[in-house]
Structures are given as C-alpha cells and as structure tokens.
Amino acid sequence: MIKKPPKRELVVSVLDNLAQKYPDKIGRYLEYYQSVDSKGRYLPYDEFQYRVMSGLEIDSAWTLTKSARAAQYMKLLPLGDNNFPCNFNLTPLIQKAVSHADRHATSGSLEWMCGNIGEKSHIEYLLKDLIEDEAISSSQLEGAATTTLVAKELLKRQRKPRTPDEKMILGNFKMMRFAWENRQRPLSLDLILEMHKEGTEDIDNDKYTPGVFRQNDDVVVVNAEGEPVHIPPSANDIEAQLERVIEWANTCHDNADSNEYIHPMIKAICLHFAIGYEHPFRDGNGRVARSLFYWYMFKNDYAAFRYIAISTLLKAAPVKYGKSYLYTETDEMDLTYFVEYQCNVILRAIQKFKDAYKKSADDIEAFNTWIMTSGLYRKLNEKQRVVFLVAKSGTATEFTAANVQKNLGCSYNTASTALKGLVELGIFGKKANGRETVYFMLEKQQIQVNWKS
Fold this sequence. Notes:
There is one protein chain. By secondary structure, this protein is mostly helical. The protein folds into three domains: 61 residues, no CATH class; 286 residues, Fido-like domain (Fic-like fold, Orthogonal Bundle), CATH 1.10.3290; 79 residues, Arc Repressor Mutant, subunit A (Orthogonal Bundle), CATH 1.10.10.10. Helix content is 60%, strand content 6%. It has 22 helices and six strands. The strands form three sheets. It has a two-stranded antiparallel sheet. A two-stranded antiparallel sheet has the order 3-4. A two-stranded antiparallel ribbon has the order 5-6. The mean pLDDT is 87.
C-alpha cells in the first residue's frame, strides 16, 4: 500500500514555526516551495518522503511543496458522491507530451505520413496491425489470457471467438471501432451505455450486464493482493454523477485566451480517470475508460491515435497504472499524478508509432533501391512497369486482363501477356475467380526470394 500524505497545514504557520525552530535552515526549506523537484518530477508523498534532505522535517517540506502546487492549480471536473473538485498542474512532462501529440498525432500529420510513404497498401497493413495491438492489450490488461499471437490470428482472419477471453478481445476491437465511428456525437449517457454494450455483449452477460449501469454498491476495486484500493461512489447517484462529467466534457475549453483553457489530450485523460473513478458498470469499466479517451482524441482531430496503442504499455506496468489512480485519490484529488503517468505512456506510444512508420518507410526505400539495382525493373516492358507501379503503390490490389486492357488502352492479348509475364518473373501471383483469372502482387520479401532463385 502507498503511504498517504499528511493533512496540509497553513504555509504561513509552517514558515513561522520553521523560522523560530530552524532559522539557519529556512533557506533549505524554501527550496521545497515549488511544484516539481530539481529534476522536474511531480512526486507523490509516497516517493517525496525519501527525497527530503537529511536533517529537515519531511511533513514541513511537504506542506511547502503542496502549497506551491495548490497556488498553481487549474480547475478540472467534480467527481464522486461529494462532488469533490479535481485539479492539476501543468508540468514539464505534460507539456512535452502535449507538444508531441500536436506534432505527430493529428489527422494532418497522419495524412502526411501516409502520403510521404506513398505505399498505400503497406501503410494500411502497418496501421491495422497497430490498432489490433490496442484491442488485444486492453483486454489482457483486464485479465484476458489469450496470447497475442492467437489474438492477432482471431482479428486478422475475422473468425468467431471460441472462448470468453477471445470474446473480450473482439469486444475491445469493436469498442475502438465504435469510438471512431461515433466521434462526431456529443458525450451522453446513451453513448457511454452503447460503448459498454458494444464491448461486453455476449462475453458473460450475467457478469457484465452489457449496456446497463450497476444497480448496487457491491463493486470494490482491489489490487493484485486482493486488498480494497477504491470504493466507487454510490450506485444511487451514478447517472447524476456521470451527467456532471458529461457536461464538463461537452463544454468547450478550446479558447486559448481564456484562463479555463484545457488541452484536448488533458481532457481525454481526465475522462479516462473519471470513468475509472465513478465505476458506473459492474465490469468493463477500464475498457470503457480507455475507449472514451480514444473517442475524445478522435473527436478533436487526433486521428493518429487510432494506431497509437497505450494499453500495450499500461499492460507492461499495471501496478504503476493502479498507483496513478491512488496517488490522485489520496492527495485531495490532484489529477496531476494520473495525467503525468498517462502522458509518459503516451510519449512512449507515440514513439513506437513513429518507429513503426520509420521502419515502414525504410523498408519501402530499400525495396525501391533493390528494384533498380537488381535488374528486375529493366526486365519489364512498358505495360508491365505501369501495372507493377500501380500494384506497389497500393492504388489497386487485384488485376484482370479486362481491366488492364481498359486502363492501358491496349488489346486483351497484350494485357493478358503482360500479366502472365509478371507471374513468370515471380512478381505477381494469380488465382481463379469463376471463369476469370485474378492477378495480384506478391509480398516484397517473396519477390526478392523469387528473383534470387
């Protein structure tokens, strides 16, 4: 269990007391009158207590730090039975994450990435792979035991799930799709209920009660040791409490000239926290919370988050994920701890997305170089070069003699000969489709193997 911070005293009283008791140390104490430490860390009391200089009173140093933070708080949303106001501070880490999201995760930056690669089929395959990672990891974070390899096969082949764990993964995949398809809708109780139903229906309806808020107070959040760490607010007021969250989420905070400005990513993270804290469902709250984070990012034109998997990293350190909730709840609902933790995860997730893009771009560049240096391109006639370049760009994935004839304005025999030649060179494959033969480009690695042999 984490150590809860002591009750904060009046900073004036603490300073007067310190000045009388330790006049020679007052300068050292004043070094703690700041929101973050010398390394820019926004430490919870659980960690702060071990970093206070020797010879100083820990709780007095904490009061100074806490007072500095309170003076800079930005108001957020009210939560829980007591309508307790949440606050947060804009730390260096949060600012860095916001900057990275603005530079690398907007719809415009995603379009630039896709256009820059210039290989539509390749980038689409890459991005589909990344969105599957989020659905799988979010389920595994909730306890799904299915391996990532089996889960990938489930989603790629679109086969029917065989186990409750596989149903959970498919439900998460559907929930992410729901978040994208409904990004233009305002937040509402209906949207939250529909999202939950989309992700949990037919897994274990008695356990989840899909699309229905919990009716009693028998839900308790426990840690890995089975110890209670969060008792959700009363079920009697769930709808009223969520309506307050909804009103806050639907309120525009985009005016940068206002003192109420909140960056969309900060709001998305707060929405994530709010659902986890209010815990409106019997089960599946974490999945809905993470899906609503994505929904809000999509709503605010951060389309690249369709392919940025935060749950992969949350799954790697579930204890830290849980602690970020507890640090907030035990320290006067200071959401900075949770926002910072999520921002740290987002920074790493964006980097993974950028690395995947760079690898894809490097692979394409290497293949294009190989095409010219291997002599393959010189083996192609004019018609074959056009068909090959169209296939390689992903503009079209399947070809027939009839559509090549039409698009290139040549005879049927010329088109057929060109396609057959691409098969003989080990560049294309073919399959029967009724009476017609359909041609398609092979994987880049297979083309290179065929050419060498």
